[in-house]
């Protein structure tokens, strides 16, 4: 099968697309899924180079998030709620391929209103932002939220979810164009460009001198954000897209009664599996009722151009979710 098949660790630019990668053989409890679309993530780039915490044995197929249909020749394990041909989405190692093997019980049904294209970037991105804001941040309607990298994959999802929950949202991004995108597609109330030094002062001004109640940070801007938070603020540590891991001055954490809260969505499978279904029930309801809507980067990629997609992601050119089309029908919803 055609796949982004890593035989030797390297930067994605230096990995050729394979036309004869082995079709996966499903293990016990797994089904085969025909991949229609896949979501691109920064960690895919790291993994190809052996720089990510999850290091599959070589050779492996790269990619994680996908949407597709249970294959016509797939085994259906006992207790599997899906049948051949069902529309599904999920995440597992090997999504940058025509076919992926995936534990059946981790799959979710792709809602009728959601196209394969939109479904390809749901599985990691949306629950990360939901659980950060709701489960960890205890976000309440009427509170002020600052979202960094607000036009990015998890960021624009966080903006939409915070708005759907009734918060007042300040979208922060690294260029005026991205601020505009976060406001247009995320529905943020205000936008600020953190390329401007002194941006926390703008946040203080917007909040009438109070500061924000919640910071959602996927960049590594915790230290700067401490300058514009309210009493009892919650700072959600979601990622370090800038490559910088903040050193936080604990005296400010103490003085303002701040909670610094981590979120590792990938850790729920092992540490808190029951919470996963709760989060997805909420998100699928929000999707079905149109309260949230996936946002995709305008250009989509294919297995032949996946390297361009990963390069665009790596150089901060993309916004929303960068998506790869694997089969032609990927725009289809029911
Ligand atoms: N905790 C979890 O469970 C979890 C789950 C998923 C993702 N994450 C993490 O969240 C972060 C964002 O993920 P994403 O999927 O939203 O990525 P993304 O779509 O690529 O967005 C990342 C954004 O970060 C900003 N950024 C600032 N400095 C950057 C730099 N030096 N290099 C690259 N980007 C930079 C860019 O926006 P501007 O140009 O506007 O600054 C960029 O668009 C990643 O670190 C990812 O690993 C964490």
Give short descriptive properties of this protein.
334 residues, alpha/beta, Quinone Oxidoreductase, Chain A, domain 1, Rossmann fold, 11 helices, 28% helix, 21% strand, globular, binds NADP nicotinamide-adenine-dinucleotide phosphate, Zn-ADH-like_protein, NAD(P)-bd_dom_sf, zinc ion binding, NAD(P)-binding protein
Indicate the topology.
Blueprint: E1 5-6, E2 30-39, H1 42-48, E3 60-61, E4 65-70, E5 87-91, E6 99-103, E7 108-109, H2 116-119, H3 125-136, E8 144-147, H4 153-164, E9 168-173, H5 176-186, E10 190-193, H6 199-206, E11 212-217, H7 222-225, E12 229-237, H8 250-255, E13 259-262, H9 268-271, H10 273-288, E14 301-302, H11 306-314, E15 323-325
Parallel strand pairs: 8-9, 8-11, 9-10, 11-12, 12-13, 14-15
Antiparallel strand pairs: 1-3, 2-4, 2-6, 2-15, 4-5, 5-7
The chain binds NADP nicotinamide-adenine-dinucleotide phosphate.
Organism: Cylindrobasidium torrendii FP15055 ss-10
InterPro entries: ADH-like_C, ADH-like_N, ER, GroES-like_sf, NAD(P)-bd_dom_sf, Quin_OxRdtase/zeta-crystal_CS, Zn-ADH-like_protein
Domain Enoyl reductase (ER): 10-324
